[in-house]
Amino acid sequence: MPPRDIDTSRRPFVLVWELTQACELACKHCRAEAQPRRHPDELTTEEGKELLDEARAFGENQLVVLSGGDPLYRDDAVELIEYGVDRGLRMTLTPSGTASLSRERVREVADAGLRRLALSLDGATPEAHDGFRQEAGSFRQTLDAARAARDAGLPLQINTTVCAETVEQLPAIREFVDELDAVLWSVFFLVPVGRGQVLDPVDPARADRVMEWLVDVQADADFGIKTTEAPQYRRVAMQRQRSGTETPDRDGVGRRTGITAGDGFAFVSHTGELYPSGFLPEPAGNVRRDSLVGLYRDSPLFESLRDPDALQGKCGACEFRNVCGGSRSRAYATTGDPLESDPLCPYVPEGYEGPLPDVTPAD
Ligand code: SF4
Fold this sequence. Notes:
This protein has helices at 45-56, 77-86, 103-111, 126-133, 138-151, 170-179, 204-220, 232-243, 292-298, 300-305, 313-316, 328-335; strands spanning 14-18, 63-67, 90-93, 116-120, 156-162, 184-189, 224-228, 260-261, 264-268, 273-275, 285-286. It is an alpha/beta fold. The longest helix is centred in the middle third of the chain and has 17 residues, at 204-220. Iron/sulfur cluster is lined by residues 232, 235, 314-315, 318, 320-321, 324-326, 341-342, 345, 347.
């Protein structure tokens, strides 16, 4: 079910549940600032099942991403996958590339009915990836798990962070995405929250060049490409199409296919807070006391994020705001206002003479 087929004012296309912030790794970009121990106030197994029941209330085939930290750090992860599958949810998982992600563990989650496994690859060599993940051996363990998924018939997604430290690696990582038969490459443009504040984002002009390159890659690739926290990929693709030098991409860029924080995307934290995204830590409420469906549909925060006319600055003046709208998470991280302009975007709408965003993160 592609995003364009759902009404994102009624339900998210992607509902992420951060099962835990516990993880063996301490990656440089970690939004969750992952900890070695589980938080005592995490949603329990029973609360998690109630959350999955509520997710089902959004409608058939709701996509649920079990995230972390490392979601497999919890020993009820497989039980929760099975529970969601039994209720007709499309369950996916983003485990960490550690020694505990064995071939047997991958087979176990595949047998539980998982629909997709997403693994992070942030470098094309052990030095680059392990340096970023701050864990020797993670590169090899990630590739082993990816091959185990392929052998188990489990569709694979590769997630890659784009920042100054990784951007030169992208062409070589793209080769791995191909070789591993991944179905989707999710390219995340760094938002300076959590540990990610110690990394340098690429500058706006470079970000646009990367997105132009991704449009070219998409034209040839057997896998899909989606950007995360960079909806201006749709603006870049539309500009290429208009120039007549490029083919449309498979997601039909130009239609309202994309999802952004609060508009097709929602994030439940390990303690039950509902955020528009994991990179926009402004809670609309808590699923322990509030209805997940009600918060998504009716909370003022989520409603404002779905209104392109509520956007401020140059995003508010931009003719692409209905197909792009900018990263609300990056606007929040850099200004404290989720409706302000996205500083990663170099585009200035014709005739716009207002202030241009600063790229410095807010305190
Ligand atoms: S100015 Fe804002 S809405 Fe326009 S393309 Fe850039 S990020 Fe998107």
